[in-house]
Amino acid sequence: MSPNFPLLSLVVFAPWLGALALWFLPRLSPVTARILALAFSLSTLALSGLALCSFDPSAAGFQFSEQHAWISSLNVHYRLGLDGLSLILVLLTGVLGPLSILASWRQETNTRLMCMLFLLLQGAALGVFLALDFVPWFLFWELSLVPAYFLIRLWGGPGATRAAYQFVIYTVGGSAFMLLGFAGLFLATGTLDFTVLAGLAADGSLASKLSVLGGFWPTAVFFGVLLGLAVKVPLFPFHTWLPSAYAEAPTGASMFMTGVMSKMGVYGFLRILWPLFPASLHRFAPALVWLALGGVVFGAFAAMRQRDLKRMVAYSSVNHVSYCLLALFAVCALSRPNPEAATGALVGAILQIFNHGISAAALFFCVGVLESRAAGKRGIGDFGGVRSAAPLLAGLCGISMFSSLGLPGLNGFVGEFLIFRGVWGLVPWVAALSCLGLFATAFFLLTFWQRVFHGPRAGAAESSFPDLTGVETATLVPLVALMFAFGILPQLLTVLVNPLVSSWVAHLVLP
Amino acid sequence: MSALPCTIYISFTGALLALAAGRRSPGSARLVALVFALLAWGVALVAAFRFVPDAAGPVTLVDLPWIPQMGIRYHLAADGISLTLAVLTGLAATAGILFSWNVDKRTGEFFAFYLTLIGGVYGVFLSADAFLFFVLYEIAIVPKYFLIAIWGSTNREYGAMKLVLYSFAGSALVLAGLLWAYAAGGAHGFGVAELAQAAASFSHGQQVWMFALVFLGFAVLAGMFPFHTWAPTGHVAAPTAASMLLAGVVMKLGAYGCLRVAMPLFPLGFAFWQPMIFWLALIGIIYAGLVALVQEDFKFVIGYSSVSHMGFVLLGLAAANVRAASGAVLQMFSHGVIAGLLFAVVGRMVYDRTHTRKLADLRATALYKRMPFAAAVFVLAGMASMGMPGFSGFPAELTILVGTWQSAPWAAVLAAVGVLVAAAFTLRVIQVSFFGHDPVAEATVHPEPYAPVTLAEKCGAVLLLGATILIGIKPDLLLDLIRPALQAPFFQAVLKGGGL
Amino acid sequence: MSFDYAGLFGALKPETALVVGALLVLGLDLSLLKGRSAGARRGAALFLGSAALMVAGWLVWVGPHGPVFGGVLVLDKFAQATRVGVLSLTLLAMGTASCNRAGRNPAELVAVMLFAAVGFTLMAAAQQLLVAFLSLELASLSLYILAGFDKSRPESAEAGLKYYLFGGMAAAFLLFGISLVYGLTGSIDLPVIAERLRSLPPSPLLMVALVMILVAFGFKAAAAPFHLWAPDVYEGAPTVAASLVASASKLAAFTFFTRMLWTGFYPVAGSISTAAVTPGWLAPLAAIAVLSMLIGNFGALAQQNVRRLLAYSAIAHSGVLMLGVMAAGDYGVGPLFFYASTYGIAALGAFAVVGVVEASGGCQKITDLAGLARRSPLLAGCLSVFILSLAGIPPLAGFFGKFSVFASALRLGGLAGPAGWLVVLAIALSAVALYYYLIVLKQALVEAPAEGAGKIAIPAAAEVALVAAAVLLVLLGVRPSLMLGLF
After folding, report:
1. Which residues of B lie inside 8 Å of C (Cβ-Cβ)?
2. For C421, which residue in chain B has the nearest alpha carbon?
């Protein structure tokens, strides 16, 4: 691979090219449109596979770098780069993108538009994971909202209008303050490049530059950026938009949103907030740990109380993603060096990012299948004994549930285990409290499993309840396969990030 | 570059020819108008491309004695700011003509008034003599009245009169202030640079009140709270092309006057009133946004959104540094294009076909299915209006935020809140107007299809969208013109600090 | 006083030409044209009258300059410009008189107009109080006759009578004031009076005299609170008379009184440049100006009759012209003259349009102008020029007139004194004025014509006059130095 080949730009823009192609071909049949979209969507996986081959995990800094001057008056550059963390997220997107399109295979209304929106969304997400300068990063961050909004609004459920509106407004609101924070950063330092800013923060000069702003403004900058990221993840209590948005969205969109879009927020914490504001993060980490804990416990307990299966999975997302943040905040709250626990927690968080994406997407898909069989109903009481009617579905869904639960041997276990172990080493009582979340998760997932799949055939399963079709199987099987693969061989992923995490821990700024 | 004054002459000539052509047929009037508007825009574009900034200040284009008895000269000069706004004028004018292709009542007169207005606006952006500035500013007032009163819609006579009287009142204040400065400076001349020099020796009290008069007069035209009420009423009453021009360009005359005349002439006065201007700009941003959020008339939402966006411009000016001011000028351009797009969709694409602007009526029809082109354009325009990156509003707002932070961080925070409010009302109006959802109505009512989107509309939309996306991706195209102009010595007294 | 009769005759050649012209018109009408058609008589009378005016104008142009007959008259730039001005305005008015088809006595009309012109030209040059009074009376009496000329309408008779009564009263005031001044100073020559006043101690008698002169000024200029005759006269008098009253009479009056006040009474002018106001005639003049502007503008807002609206607007404009008078002492008469003459052209034009529309079916209410753009685009266009010039919209002459008057008034003392505050008030009220002017234009350009209102045919002479007036206003608006350069 020649060093000047813009591989990363191609990764980001290939899906957009696909959307453009779809736009210029208005008379495509729905099937052709879907196939074309799928092809462009798979390009990500192909290209990132290429990148994977020449990726060197132990190399410091970013690989496949591209940099061009863009807006000189604001010292903005078009900069893309890849490290272990971004590679994992790009791979995740590469997997979930095509699967989301597959999950919408049966959508007949306005198929071309839907495929275009998925491709636009995928490209935007990739841009977020690869951009290393604030303006392009923010561009992709904000642009991802538009296709997501329309996916929810046009193909969503009855409450879609309100859900979509809330989703966009919350996120834009957070983004506005993040923009403000970066405006302050630019004022103080004259640059918006993440790596340059991280470098400044590492040698302490960022804090002194920020103090030029005077008063409490440096902290305000921190909070601005925090707010923007917190709403996206979401961090409790900024999560209120999520259950409706995920529940009202069509299946494919929910899969992508939970799998990839929420990870954009976590990625932001790891790539932006932590490297730039280590001291502030350290100062506020104890409070933030409580918030993350709140998300863990509340998410799980709220899921327990849901009757609507999709909402149940949505709340469970809040729970699982909060684990990542819990790990990060616990690490940041460290006062004494504890590299083993810190490394464990961080690796676990990254693993959790990937694995939760897989398992949550699978769960949403299963609920989507159930919903389609039951003509739109998806209450927990609307089904019974599905196992006898659709054994394949039951099997694959069961595996997904157990992965989400964290059963050893499946992918969910490794990440959660490492997080717990790490957090226990850092703030033991928090780890203890988050076990409550574990129990609640186990409770509702098992309830789901038992009520829907076991027992006598009831509800929608009484009449005809076809098992998984070919396309549906093709959607679920890769996910389940990955669950097993990364459950048994987590080192496939950890090898990509271990050196990175070690360097993070080594450079931890401690008071 | 020295051909730039031709933009004025071409427009006025075009006005007369359009009037004559209108006698023959509406079609020939339209054609004449389009040709002349394109010509004038072309001149402005070429001049902008070839422009080489002069560190000393604006480049003189024409400087002839006019009324020597009073020291008045016919003095035209241009710098990066004038060029940016001249290009905007041409763009808005051309797009406006394209969107007025369907006017068939008294067409010749319509385009005559329109081109007169445009000629006056070009002139204002190029004037370097305060008297000439004022004359061209006032020439623009009367065509506005007739454009609205004859071809407008809701409440047009009231809206026209209100708009014109407010504009005139604003200009009256400016006249009072400028005359006072002229008299107090020894009545030597009316050149802007000359007046600035004379004003440097005025007392603090004199500068404070002169600034108050002149700034207030211009700010009324820029729609500064609380003198903004003419804007929504007037823009709603106006026909589409007029609203596009009024909200898109004419409001910028006010902000331009503040920047070019009020602030540099009376820096002490400006320093005195600065906190108040901050507050009024911020209130304008947030209050107008909140009002837009509850409007039930489609066009009123856009009208109030214009006031809110102009608040950003005033905020940038209030921050008084080069960066914020350059953001303000960029926002002037950006909002000019975006407002044109929004009014074009609402007025021409939607209203001319559905004959309703009530959101309650539009809510019941899934308009995006029946007008997909208009829906797509409106979504893109809405994204631009929200300040989404990739469109021209984003670099403008970011620059203003950074510049404002430099002077008054708390104002920047409130401005960020304003961004959020803008997103809220824009999203709401998109949602309710085009993506309204009433399954019952959809199932039962099968109305006849709307007239298809004409080529003229498509061209106009593409032109405007192209402009906002181009500047969104490459804002340096304009910022490289604007920044050197603001760094000239003329602005030094008032734009302190804020280098690159 | 030197008795240079040759010089006097040379200086008065224009007036002579006018009188000869008037007599010729009358004579020809009584003799040769007896029995001819009304059209022929009217045409002949107008032709002769116009010729007389043009000859007089030429004679002014080539005539002598400087004081005449020992200072009884003075032909300085101001006087010469005013003489040319009033003659041109009368010529334009004569052009519009051709609309008056129903008039039964065209020769008398023309003759009286010429006599009025004589009065105006003498008023412009008078520097001695007796001659001044005589010329004023000549002009006024002619105007009274003209106001009551239309014997078919009782409004005309009412207008004539009211004008006569008010005017007579004002003339009496003026005469009394002049007598007092003579008594105090012992002279009727304005420069000498000024000399004498310089050494005179302030006395209540002088105050009374000044007030009386100001009353006469106010009446003649249609300034408040002496304006009560104006609405009725403008409404009732035939269009020609109203237009003369509004244009030439005002120009002559302002020249006349400006000269009287500044040449004769400048030692007792006082000052209103700063907030510390010194007593003199400037202060009451300022009060008159304020009242006129307020009453004129707010009165016009309520009008439904287009002529009354123009009357109130005349009152308002008088107020602003007073500002020009106040500044004339220090900064010259250029702005004042420019404003007064261009106002005259615009007012005359507006009345002319009204007259033409009147001849085609009545024009009393503003709504009678509805749809003028459809009925006669030329009339609508000209009306727009005239109305916008009155409103003070660039690039028309009215704007520059106002602008230069404001500039010179502000130079008196900035915004520190009443002069400056008056300017601010005037500017503020011009926004009010724009409202009612736009109402008129709205009817003409925006509204559709009334039922049964057809196209309007404009007589040739009137067309020429209208277009000439409009072109003049645009020309002077774009190149004011054409006129300002004279001063």
Report:
1. 66-70, 109, 131, 134-136, 138-139, 141-142, 145-146, 149-150, 157, 161, 164-165, 168-169, 172-173, 175-176, 179-180, 182-184, 187, 206, 209
2. B176
